[in-house]
Give the backbone structure.
Amino acid sequence: MHSMQLAVFSMGGTIDKVYFDDLSDYTVGEPQVAAILAGANVDIDYEVMEVARKDSLYVTDAEREALRERVAADPRRHVLITHGTDTMTETARVLAGIADKTIVLTGAMSPARFAASDATFNVGCAVGAVQSLPAGVYIAMNGRVFPAGSVRKNRDKGRFEPLP
């Protein structure tokens, strides 16, 4: 039996943020998902490709379209996307309708480099989801998997929840 082939696209976001003491500021750094997957000793074939390196509030429509084109053109059926949480639902909407692919977006409320981050948990949940769900676009956050278009970020509670 062949190992699953997973395409991983990174858009930046909090999951990839690093803290610089001299600036007392955060900036989006290199994708952390490869380190998360390696640290979890995952036994799947994956490739991490960076599309953007920015806070999701600044992701442009052109970058979303570039992501859509890259996902659609990739030969792998299973796709994981790390993304900032503020506009993850907008990007999921742009990805809707790509045929014959299971696409799962995930991110984190705190940087992956933080000890108390939810990043590792969310990536693990997303890896499980992408392997077990039918074709479509999903968001995996806070231990739940939502079909795209049925979820929102609740900033006050610091989590994603179903739309009312």
About this structure: DSSP finds four helices and ten strands in the chain. The first strand starts at residue 5 and ends at 12. Residues 102 and 135 are 4 Å apart (CA to CA). The chain has a mean pLDDT of 91.
